[in-house]
Each structure stands twice: as C-alpha cells, then as structure tokens.
Amino acid sequence: MPEKNYDVVIVGAGPAGLTAAIYTSRRALSTLVLSKDIGGQMALTDDIQNYPGFEIIEGLVLAQKFQEQAAQTGSEFLFEGVGRIEKTEDGFIVKTETGRQFLARAVILAFGLSPRTLDVAGEKELIGKGVSYCATCDGPLYRGKTVAVIGGGNSALDAAEYLSKIAKKVYMLLRRDVFRGEEILVEQVKAADNVEIIFNAKVKALKGKERLESLAYVLNDSEEHDLDLEGIFIEIGHVAKTDWLNNLGLKMTERQELIVNADNETSIKGIFAAGDITSITYKQAVISAGEGAKAALQAYRYLQGNKPLMPDWSVKK
Ligand code: NDP
C-alpha cells in the first residue's frame, strides 16, 4: 500500500534531480526525492572546474549545497533505489527496491548513467579487490602504490590527475592515440611526473588470485604486455540502465536513453526526464541542472492543467 502521496516524485539526486527539487518545492509542490546517493556522478568528481560561479569546487561539496537548498525549500529525501513505476488512473505508483510505495501526480526521472565496464577476463571477480570505477571514492586506498587508469575522456583525466597526487605511479592506458577530454585536463595530466601515458593499448585481462596483481594489454594491435599493479580505475564512460522502466513503454534511443522533447516531457504524460539519462548530447553538471529546472517547470505547468506560465519566467507560446 502506498504510504504517502506527493505532487512530484523525483528519481535521482544528481544536479538534474536536485535542481528539479529546488524548483518544484519553490512552486509549493510536495516533493519526494528518491535516490541511492547524493550528487550522482558529480559527487564522484574530485575537482569541478567548469561550474559557473565556482572556479574550483569538490563535486560532493557542490552536491551538498544543491541538497541543502532543496531541503530548505521543502523537498523530502529518501535514500533508496527505485525498482518499478506503475501508471494509475491519475498518476503513478513509485516502488522502491525495498518495497516501499509512494503515489505521485507527476514523476521526474533524473537518475543519470552507470559506469561502463571493460568486459575483460578477471574484471568482475576483482571488483573491490583492486578494480574500481571511482577514483575519488577508492583513490585514498592506493597511497604510495602503482595503479592504472583506463580511458581518455574527462573522467579518466580527472582520475589520473587526482591519483597522481596519491599513488607512487599512475599508468594511463588509452585504446586509441587521442584523448577525448578537455585540453586543460590533458595538460594537467601530462605535467604530472609520475603519470605514464600509453596510447593504442587495449586491455585484454585483469589478473590476480586474492587481489589484482597485473593487467595484460596489447600494444598497437600486436605486442602483448603485462603491467604489475595494485589498483586499476576503469573510467571509460557510462551507460544508461533503463530496463527497469520497460513496463511503462517509454520511448528510448538505441542507447537506452530516455527521449525527451525540448520541454523535458517523455513519451508518457506526467513523466518528465532530465540530465544524463536523457537523449541530450552534452552530459555536463551545469546542463543537467538547467534541464532539471526545465523538467520541474514543465511538471508544474502540467499539474496546473497546462495553463501558460507566468510571463516573468517563460515566453508566451
Ligand atoms: P567519455 O565518453 O567522454 O570518454 C570515454 C573514454 O573511455 C574515451 O577515451 C573512450 O575511448 C574510452 N573507452 C570507452 N570504451 C572503452 C573500452 N571498452 N576500452 C577502453 N577505452 C574505452 O566518458 P567520460 O566518463 O570521460 O565523460 C563523460 C562526460 O562527463 C563527458 O561529457 C565529460 O566531459 C563529463 N565529465 C566532465 C568532467 C569535468 O569536466 N571535470 C569530469 C568527468 C566527466 P575512445 O575515445 O576511443 O572512444
């Protein structure tokens, strides 16, 4: 049985979900945020250097600021994953993974992406035993040790730069000979004495009995090598995990991202989506925050019977 009714239930508490919460509660909509954690990927970023207003800020600190603001404006929080959403006649039942149920007149999906795995031998078995997907969380365990970072995007660069200050030696392995991340981060990593960048290196296997001991890779599609390591940080992007929503029949892209229109409406009335889990091209904290605000305003408009919004915060359509 549903234990409480809300105007809006927001799934996810990254920049999109938390900004949506600030906006819905400021519009006096009763709001519940359901999430496994606070900040999502943003909280796993050591230093954010491109969020306007903050020259540099720790991701978790920024996420906490968002949360405080959402809580101050009246949003409620429950730290549980959502397992299922069902449509009812006039809204939705949102069920958490532990079986708690809530009624919502509108839902905002903002639960972000999940880390992509390498899918090589030994990876699954050694998770938590030297294999990590989060340098900010697990980096401090590798003080004075030898580690590798896999990937060439901003996440991998951010991880390599952070780990260079902790570990004795950091290998960075890219499968191609180009970075995908921002030049400023590339320069920072190149400037660190203890980082060795290996291009055209494809990881083949992770080896170790009790814990990770080495990784096997192929260089330039021909030479086989082994690297002795104590830790590996797999930072190769993220994937959308939306299969738990399949019962609703939401329209998704080939990559399983939720398709939204310019006003953050999904293919189902009353369900809105924002941030990295949607089909938007650029996955950035500042963009997710803006998208969360849009989703909240559109949810408010929907709950008001789709009346035009106040002219001070929308152009007439
Ligand atoms: P990206 O998709 O940007 O980069 C993924 C990297 O991993 C690429 O170098 C890619 O190589 C590589 N890769 C993918 N699959 C494999 C594989 N199977 N084996 C080996 N390498 C692989 O993901 P990120 O997580 O780095 O970034 C995602 C978004 O988050 C970006 O928009 C980024 O800007 C943002 N972000 C921003 C930060 C900041 O501004 N400080 C910090 C972290 C993330 P290839 O290029 O060959 O495909």
Write up what this structure looks like:
There is one protein chain. With 317 residues, this protein is of the alpha/beta class. The chain is built from 7 helices and 17 strands. Strands 1, 2, 3, 4, 5, 6 and 17 form a 7-stranded mixed β-sheet that branches. Strands 8-15-9-10-11 form a 5-stranded parallel β-sheet, covered by helices on one side. Helix 1 (15-26) runs parallel beside helix 3, helix 1 packs parallel to helix 7 (285-303) and helix 5 packs parallel to helix 6. The radius of gyration is 21 Å and the shape is elongated. The two termini are 40 Å apart. The model has no long low-confidence stretch (mean pLDDT 94). Residues 45, 48, 50, 116, 118, 150-156, 158, 174-176, 180, 236-238, 283-284 line the site of NADPH dihydro-nicotinamide-adenine-dinucleotide phosphate.
Bound molecules: NADPH dihydro-nicotinamide-adenine-dinucleotide phosphate
Q: Which segments are poorly predicted (pLDDT under 50) over 5 or more consecutive residues? A: none
Q: What is the CA-atom radius of gyration, in angstroms?
A: 21 Å
Helix content range of the residues, please?
Answer: 10-25%
How many E-type strands?
17
Mean pLDDT: 94
- The arrangement of helices and strands along the chain is EHEHHEEEEEEHEHEHEEEEEEEH
Biggest sheet features: 7 strands, mixed
The amount of beta strand, in percent, is 25-35%
Question: How many angstroms does the end-to-end distance come to?
Answer: 40 Å
What coarse outline follows from CA principal-axis ratios?
Answer: elongated
Classify the secondary structure makeup into a structural class: alpha/beta
Counted by DSSP, the helix tally is 7
